[in-house]
Design goal:
Elements: E1 4-7, E2 13-16, E3 20-24, E4 42-50, E5 55-61, E6 65-72, E7 74-79, E8 84-88, E9 91-96, E10 101-106, E11 114-121, E12 131-136, E13 146-151, E14 159-160, E15 166-172, E16 177-181, E17 187-195, E18 198-200, E19 203-205, E20 210-213, E21 218-223, E22 227-235
């Protein structure tokens, strides 16, 4: 039985609105592929570039865990809970949309684009009270090791969400190899390569490729070049 899925960078959905250039790993907005709706509880993985001084106006969300990871530039956030903040490379932002929120996201810089990952995860419960959080991470803590940036536990490292999920970032030198242990039975892992070349469980991957694998207890990651990547462990059935 099939227990892995490969999404090459060039096969992703694409929308170019001028001010926003977005690549969609999974079906989103005007991009629809019945074979690419979600990977377990991972529903959206958007690779967004926002032009200088532009952004998303106020819009609603509900019953979704929304994670934003800036890669370059700054992201200015405002929401109906009264939060106003700027998140930068090295920060991670999370919102539990729950019963419903409105928010806007802008690139406050007039001289450089914003690049960030927008990730949605199905929650393990509905209609929670909306919440917002952001943290600043030490980027050096992901050099040649996995840095946990998200978990289900508010007392653990990184932000937390209403789902039995763990995210890790790694920035590895060429030749480094690690094994990642699956933390919860029934979970799978979706690897997204930010830069360089990586081999995950024997599957060669390049920048912006995605590779999902499940029905395993652990997986191996080998940096074939200097590389940066994101591992997202999520429930496959929820």
């Amino acid at each position: 039985m099939k227990s892995a899925v490969l999404h090459k960078a060039g096969t992703r959905g694409h929308s170019d609105h001028g001010w926003l250039d977005s690549r969609h790993t999974f079906s989103f907005a005007g991009y629809y592929d019945p074979e690419r709706i979600h990977f377990g509880a991972l529903r959206v993985l958007n690779d967004d570039t926002v032009a200088a001084g532009m952004g998303f106006g106020k819009h609603p969300h509900d019953n979704m865990e929304i994670i934003s990871i800036p890669l370059e530039g700054d992201l200015e956030h405002k929401d109906s809970m009264g939060n106003t903040s700027v998140i930068r490379h090295g920060d991670v932002q999370v919102m539990s949309a729950g019963t419903g929120i409105f928010h806007s996201e802008f690139n406050p810089n007039a001289d450089q684009p914003l690049k960030f990952l927008q990730i949605w995860v199905f929650p393990d419960r509905k209609n929670v009270t909306p919440r917002y959080d952001q943290i600043t991470l030490n980027i050096e803590d992901r050099h040649n090791k996995l840095q946990q940036i998200l978990s289900p536990d508010a007392d653990d490292e990184g932000v937390w969400i209403y789902q039995n999920a763990w995210f890790h970032l790694g920035k590895f030198d060429k030749g480094l190899c690690i094994d990642y242990q699956i933390k919860a039975k029934g979970n799978g892992v979706y690897a997204f390569i930010l830069s360089g070349k990586v081999t995950v469980n024997g599957q060669p991957l390049e920048a912006r490729d995605g590779f999902g694998i499940w029905d395993i207890d652990q997986l191996s990651v080998v940096a074939d070049t200097n590389a940066e990547f994101l591992l997202m462990e999520v429930p496959m059935n929820f």
